[in-house]
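Final report, results section. Input specification for complex C-07:
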Amino acid sequence: MLEKRLLIVSGKGGVGKSAVSAGLALLAQRRGKRVLAMEMGSPGGLSAHFGTSSLEFEPREVRPGLHAMRMVRSDALLEYLGIQLNIRGSTAFGPFARAFDALATTAPGIREIITIGKALWEVKEDRWDVVIADAPPTGQIGSYLRAPVTIAELVPGGKVRAQADLMRDILADPEVTEMLLVTLPEELPTTETEETLEWLAAEKVIAAPRIIANRVLDELTDPSSPPGPLGEAAELHRSLWGEQQEWLRRLPPQHQLPYLFGLFTPGEVAARMCDEFEAIT
Amino acid sequence: MTTTLIVTGAGGVGKTTVAAAIAIRAARSGMRTLVVTVDPARRLAATLGVSDLGNDPQPHVDEPNLWAAMLDASASWRAVAMRHADPAVATRLADNEFFQAASEHFPASQAYAAADQAVTFVQARAWDLVVVDTPPSGGGIDFFTAPAQMADLVGGRLLRWMTGGPLPGRRLLFNIAGRPVLRVADSILGSDLLERVAEFLLDLRTTYDGVSQRGREIERVLRSAAILVITTSDPAPVWEAIKFYRALPKLASTPAAVVFNRILPEAWATASVPGDAPPALASNLARWSAETVRQRDTRDEFSARYGAQVATIPWSMIPPNSLDSLAGMLDDAHEMPWGSFGIE
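Structure output:
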C-alpha cells in the first residue's frame, strides 16, 4: 500500500477511517517516508489520533517527517484559484471568489474538485513520498471521486476543464492512487461497502479498492462455558465472533484488524493500528 | 396532544433499533404510537412491517397500537420546492440541469425533506407519540439545522453573493451576465455556467415564502420535542454525542438523556477469575473486563463533564428480529427518561 503516492481511505461513518489513516501515516513515517496526512472528513478526526491540537490548512509537522493538514474549503478555493487557474490578488478575494463560492455550493462537482484537487495537487508536488487522505465517508465519496468526470460533462472547455482532466488521470492510475475501504464485520457497514463497490465498478473512476475489516474478534478455541462471568464473557465472545464470521464470508477483506479491547485514547488506537499494519504490509 | 420523540446520534450505534424498541414499549403501554424510520436494516424493517418502501404510516399487523413509516431517504428539496413553486417555475426547475445535482449535493435538503415529512405526521394529530429516527446525513445534526439552511439557500443568499448586490429580477439577468466578473468566470469555465446557475437560483427564490413559513413550523415542532442522543462507548460515536449534546440546546432543546447502548454487565468489571479456570477463558474475561471498565469510565466522564443524564441499555445477544425481543432490549435499561415522552 505504502509504495503508492496517494491513499484514499474511506468507509461508512464510525468504522475507524481516521484511525486507519493515522496508523498508516505513522507506519509510513516510521519507514522514513515524507508523509502528508489530510483530514477531509469531520474536523478533529485525524488530529485526535496524532494527539495534536486542531489541524489547519497549512500542513504542520506532527512527527519528524509526518505533516498533517485539514481540508478547509475556503482556503482550498483560494489556492485553487491562485495555483490552478492563475487568478490572484484582489480578483481572487473579490466578487469573483464570492461568485465562485456560490457556484461551488450549487453546481455539481465544483466543491468536490476543489477538495479532491488539493490532494491530487499535493501528489504531483515532490514534497511528499505519500499522501494519505482521511476521506469523506462512503455516502459522499462518490461525488468526490467522480468530480473530474462531472466537471467534464458540465464544462466543455477552459482552464477548469483542463485541470479536471489531469486530475481524472491521476485518480485512475493504479500505480499512483489506491483506495482503501474500511469496514466492520456487521450488517450495515457490509451492505454499504457492497453498494460502494458496485458503484466503483460501474463508474471506473478509480481502481478496485482494498478492503480492510476493522474490529475483528479472534476465535475463542475453548468451547466450555462455566457458570458466572467467565462463561458469560465466553458466550458473548463466541456469539459475536460467529456473527462476524458470517459477514466476513460475505465480503472477504484483504486485511483484518483486531478488536482493541480496553484501549481508549485515539493516540493509543493509532499506535496499535500502526503496529498491525507493520505486521501485514 | 401528540408527543414527539427524536432519536439522534452517530450512525451504527443502534439508533433505529432503540427508536423501534421505545415505540413498541409505548404501544404496549396503550399509547397510539408511530415510529418513523430512515433506512433501517432489512431484518428490523421486516420486524416493523415496513419492508415495502412507502411514506404512508402502516398499522402493524401484530401490534394494535403501533404504526410504522419509512421515510424516503432519496426524497430531496425537489419535492419541497415543487410544492412551493408556481407551475411555470416548477416546470422550468424540473428541466434545470442543476436541480438534481444540487439536491444530491446539499445535505441539508435530504434532512429537510425528512423533517418536513416527520412534522406532517406530528401535525396529523392521529397519534399520542411519534418516535422519529433521524437520517444519518451530516451525522444527524442536519435534521435540526436544515429548516434554517434551506430558507437561507432558497432566500437568495447565494444569489446576492454571486451578484455582489441586492437581489436582481429576472429581467436583470442579462446585466448580471454582462458583469466583468462573470466574463472572467466564463473564460475559465469555458461556458456560461455562472449565468445558468444564477437563473436557476432566481427560480428557486420564488419558493422562499412557502419554504420559510414551513421551516418555522418544522422548527416549532423540533423545539417542543423530547430528544434522546444514542451512542455506544466507542470513541467516535461518543465524540459525536458530545457535539450533539452541546449543540442541541440552542437548536432545539436539551436532550432528555444520552443513552449508552450495548453496555457490558457491570459485574464483569470486578469479576475474579477462579484459579482453575481454563487459560483461554480467563484471558478472554480479562479483556472483556477491561472493556467494561472502559465503558464505565466513558459514561462517568460524560455525565461529570457535561452534566448529562446518562442512561444505559445492556448489550443484547438476541437479534432484534421479533417485536418481543426488540421490546425486551429495554427491560434492563437504566435511567431511561420515560416520563419525558409520556411513557409510564
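The radius of gyration of chain B is 24 Å. Chain B touches chain A through 69 residues (CB under 8 Å). This concludes the modelling results for the funded period.
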